[in-house]
Inverse folding.
């Protein structure tokens, strides 16, 4: 009878250790995901700025249409919903 009880305790300890190991692994993965999600909007903003500058340079005769202050105000989160892209 004591052997069965000892066997159950050993199994429980193994299960708890495996759970802890898996949980720590998931926390490490979630931390890297969190860092990715924090940097993602910054990278998108940089790519959008690069794209807009390339497009504005490649379109002939549109130098006076684009207002740099309007592009700058569109990059802030509070004005994103009110900004519209220029008609092509």
């Amino acid at each position: 009878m004591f052997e069965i009880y000892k066997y159950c305790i050993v199994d429980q300890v193994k299960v708890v250790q495996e759970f802890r190991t898996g949980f720590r692994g998931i926390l490490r993965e979630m931390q890297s995901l969190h860092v990715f999600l924090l940097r993602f909007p910054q990278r998108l903003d940089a790519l959008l700025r690069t794209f807009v500058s390339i497009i504005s340079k490649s379109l002939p005769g549109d130098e006076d249409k684009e207002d740099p202050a309007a592009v700058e105000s569109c990059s802030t989160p509070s004005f994103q919903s009110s900004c519209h892209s220029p008609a092509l």
Remarks:
- Residues 56 and 62 are 7 Å apart (CA to CA).
- Helices lie at 2-58, 68-74.
